């Protein structure tokens, strides 16, 4: 039951926002009493913590499965972006990450500390792969470009209220990041990915 509650809560938080979803909403959606939820979670903050941890794990499992498909480095980044777009489609258009930072800053900081480590590793692997494939320039300072990219992405997510706006800017950041690193062959692949991209 505990896992079912976390799963349903995660879905509602991402779709409707961390602030607006109440324990009553979760109980109503699951056709259980609020008392049942409180049996497992003493308050909403604890449930949010568990839910964000679960989403964090899911995100990285999906990212690993995308990497395992062995797309080229540029295609891989676009596939990961699409995964985020699908996961964070919500009804309120208020970015869940922005809401989490604003209303539950401690939980946000906790998630962020794990996220930065895992994201920087993912970005680093992608850049090294792209260099080997001849899509990115071989003279890049990998660590600097990793820092550039995560600074851009985290800044967008922390400071953009609207989820659709965040996704639009993220796509532009991905294009900007890729063009800055790309060889001629990489630019051709980037143009190909941009043509098939849904905003």
TrEMBL record:
Gene3D superfamilies, per the entry: Tetracycline Repressor, domain 2
Pfam family, one: TetR_N
Boundaries of every HTH tetR-type domain copy: 1-59
SUPFAM superfamilies linked to this entry: Homeodomain-like, Tetracyclin repressor-like, C-terminal domain
DNA-binding among keywords: yes
Superkingdom, taxonomy of origin: Bacteria
DNA-binding region: 22-41
Keywords: DNA-binding
Cited PANTHER family: ACREF/ENVCD OPERON REPRESSOR-RELATED, ACREF_ENVCD OPERON REPRESSOR-RELATED
Protein name: TetR/AcrR family transcriptional regulator
Organism of provenance: Flavobacterium ginsengiterrae
